[in-house]
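Problem: given the chain below (190 residues), write out its structure.
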Amino acid sequence: MAFCGRGRINTSEGNISPVQLIILALLNRGPAHGYRVLQGLQGKLGGWRLKSGTIYPALHRMAEKDLISSAHVPQEDRPDAVEYKLTPKGKKVLREVLRNLQSEFKVQDHFWRFLGASMNGEAQDDLLEWSMREQSPTAFMAIKMQCDCTPGECTPRHLRFLKRYREYLELELKWVEQRLTDLKSSDKSE
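Solution.
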């Protein structure tokens, strides 16, 4: 997978947009009509707000590319809903993109580590404050590089960051432990 101009993602079946990729991922959970797609994405993409004027044209383009299929579903006292579902081609594209994410993450990892190690002064302070507020794993990693690259030179702000990072990791660990407990419970009930 390679990102090209304006955020397009190259696949063996042609280019798709990031919006189309997240729609494929959502429809991988099961068929949905356009409004459910829009609702399913609200609040899950950070500050990225998708509107119906983005979703519906993307759904139409994806149907034209045979990545998804659409079917009219009769509604009582309302116009028919259009339900979308992944086609075999759409599943293939999603699998390809997800398989290739590892190399994308590796590139981004090196990029953020380089930037984090290169920061100083105000830019470093801004990123540190933002990472503590947002608890972003990527930003934590970039700031962590500052402490890794300058042993013995961590400021009181870095020490506060490390304490917050530890708190964040403890919360993440609790979440993992809860999911494991839930999975063990569901295995026993089956």
